[in-house]
Amino acid sequence: MTTTASLFSARLTLTPKTALAGLLDGAWWPRSRDLTAELPSLVEALEGRFGRVTRVAVNPTCWPGVPHKVFVAGHIVHVGRFTEQDSDKMILVSCAVGRCDLLVIPPETEPTAADRLMTAAALPGNVRAVGTLMTNEAANGLRIRNARRGEGARETDGGTPATPRRHPVVGARMIPLPWNMRR
């Protein structure tokens, strides 16, 4: 049986080959939470760069069904379940290169947010952990949605000018400089 997910290529971004190592080797954005259907296209896409992938480690909290083995391109890939591993991370093990750590972007993520996450995860020398990337994107998405809501409100209230923006360091300790001190 061929699933629709395996008919498409993997939505994958990898870190360019450089001497600047980071915490992640890239990001993967699956189309569903069906690991049996999604894993073959990912493994096939990675094998050109990393060699034959033999093992995959996932956190089962994000995958409703985690198979023990998946048949991919003529060989078996063993799948391990590790609850202590970050739920948004996947580790793939290759005989040729070693391991490949990928940020797994939830399938329901909006395309613009997924694009930002894929770009951030594939930066050479990235030192941000998976949790940090996901938290930063959630905050960034909230700021963008709030800004859009504010713009929409201004357009519908008869063109009232926007309220002036507050100084970005309000609440921080301001140090007076000689040229801006008032007496």
Characterise this structure.
With 183 residues, this protein is an alpha/beta fold. It is 30% helix and 20% strand. The protein has helices at residues 35-50, 111-121, 130-156, and strands at 12-14, 26-28, 53-58, 69-72, 75-81, 89-94, 98-104. The relative contact order is 0.16.
> What share of residues are in beta strands?
15-25%
Average pLDDT score: 80
What percent of the residues sit in helical stretches (DSSP H or I)? 25-40%
Briefly note the structural class of the backbone: alpha/beta
SSE string:
EEHEEEEEHH
Spans of at least 5 consecutive residues whose pLDDT stays below 50 are: 1-7, 167-173
Shape category: globular
Features:
183 residues, alpha/beta, 7-stranded mixed β-sheet
What is the topological layout?
Blueprint: E1 12-14, E2 26-28, H1 35-50, E3 53-58, E4 69-72, E5 75-81, E6 89-94, E7 98-104, H2 111-121, H3 130-156
Parallel strand pairs: 2-7, 3-5
Antiparallel strand pairs: 1-2, 3-6, 4-5, 6-7
Describe the structure concisely for a colleague:
With 183 residues, the protein is α/β, with parallel strands linked by helices. 30% of the residues lie in helices and 20% in strands. It is built from 3 helices and 7 strands.
